[in-house]
Amino acid sequence: MFKGLWIGLTLILALSYTYAAESSDRDEFGVGLVLGEPSGLNAQFFWSSKTSIDVTAAWSWNDWFTTAADFQVYNYLADAPREWKWYYGLGGYLTLPENEDGTLGVRVPLGIKYHFPHSYIDVWAEVDPALQLAPDTEAEFQGGLGLTFWLW
Fold first, then answer.
1. Is 27 left (phi over 0), alpha (psi -120 to 50) or beta?
2. Of 41, 43, 65, 128, which is the most exposed, with the fewest CB atoms less than 10 Å away?
3. Helix (H, G, I), strand (E, B) or coil at 82
4. Pick the CATH number of 2-150 from 2.40.160.20, 2.40.110.10, 3.50.50.60, 3.40.50.300
5. Residue ranges per structural domain of the chain
6. Phi, psi at 139, each rounded to 5°
7. Alpha helix stretches (DSSP H) within the chain
8. Pairing of strands 103-107, 84-97
9. DSSP per residue, 104-120
10. Given phi > 0 = left and psi -120 to 50 = alpha, else beta, which region is 77?
C-alpha cells in the first residue's frame, strides 16, 4: 500500500516541478544535501520570489528510506542583512522501513537560511514538528542542516 503512495507522491512531485519550472518568476532550481537523521538529497523549486516546493529523499542509519515534500513561504529577517531569510510551510512525508509497513504523516517545516553573497550556495537549518497519521497517530520531531547549490 505505501509503495503505491510513494509512486503517486513521486508523480505529483514531477508534475509540480513541471508547473513550477513554467511559472516561476525567478526560475530557480537548486539541489543539495541534508545532514541529520535521516541524511540525504534535497531539491528546491521556487514558484515565486517568496514561495517554493522543497523535496527530500533521505536514508536513515536504522535502515529506512523517507521522502518528504513541503510548500514553503520565505520572509526576510527584520534588521538583518538580505542574505538571511526565515521560512515556514506545510508538507507531508512517507517513511518506508526495511521489512516493515511504512508510515505516512504531515509536517510543519520552520527554518532559517543564509545565502552566501556572490555565490550559488545557501546553508540552512530546519526543525519539523510532525504528526504521523498512519499506521498509528503519534507526534514526531524531524529536522536537519542543509546545503543548496542553485543551478538556475
1. left
2. 41
3. coil
4. 2.40.160.20
5. 2-150
6. -80, 145
7. 2-23
8. antiparallel
9. EEEE--EEEEEEPTTSS
10. beta
- What cell numbers appear for 3 in the block? 509503495
**CA-CA distance, 84 to 128, in Å (whole number)?**
19
Q: Which three cell numbers, joined as nine digits, stand for 127?
A: 526543525
Do residues 51 and 90 lie in contact, with contact meaning Cβ atoms separated by under 8 Å? no
pLDDT digits (tens, 9 = 90+) for 52-103: 999 999 998 777 899 999 999 999 988 888 899 999 999 999 999 877 788 9
C-alpha–C-alpha distance, residues 130 and 57, integer Å? 17
Query: Mean pLDDT across the stretch 108-129?
Result: 95
pLDDT (mean) for 134-142? 92
Q: What is the CB-side half-sphere exposure of residue 39 using CA atoms within 13 A? A: 6
Query: Across the strands, what pairs with 39?
Result: 59
d(CA 28, CA 85) in angstroms, rounded, equals 16
Q: What are phi and psi of 120, to 5 degrees?
A: -110, 30
